[in-house]
Structure formats: structure tokens, C-alpha cells
Amino acid sequence: VSDLLTCLSRYLCAVFAELVGPTGRVVGIDHIPELVEASIQNVNKADSHLLSTRQLCLVTGDGRQGSSKGSPDS
User: How buried is 57 (Cβ within 10 angstroms: 0-12 exposed, 13-18 middle, 19+ buried)?
Assistant: First the structure.
């Protein structure tokens, strides 16, 4: 079940990034670096523009703490 939720979370981050459009931003946070790297690779395969335009930012960290990475000031 954990793998399924992780896949859905990564998928939903990409969907939300498409929904917010070019002026919006979505930050996905996971505490497992390997999952973040796998997510980046998967998004780059299908929707690399989301990462290059910073509509989607995927970072390693504690989601309960939030992240300044991907913020408008970073």
C-alpha cells in the first residue's frame, strides 16, 4: 500500500502542476532521497517542462516542516 500511495502522490504533484498552469507552483516533498530522484526522472520522461519552468519542484525533506525550496524567493 505504501508504494501505491507514493506513486499516487508523485502523480498528483504532476497533475496539480499542470492544473495551476505556468504562473503557479507545486512543491512535492518526500523524506526518501531515492524516491525524490525517481520522481524527478519520471517527470523528466513525460513532462520535463514542469521541472524546467519550476511549475513543479520535487525536494527531499520533512513534509511536516514545509520547504523553502521551490518558493518564489529560492
Answer: buried
- Report the distance separating Cα 63 and Cα 11, nearest Å: 17
Handedness of CA 15, 19, 23, 27 (dihedral sign): negative
Report the range of poorest mean pLDDT among 12-21, 42-51, 65-74. Answer: 65-74
- Would you say 27 and 67 are in contact if contact means Cβ atoms under 8 Å apart? yes
Closest CA to 53 of 16, 26, 13: 26
> Taking the model in full, what pTM does it have?
0.76
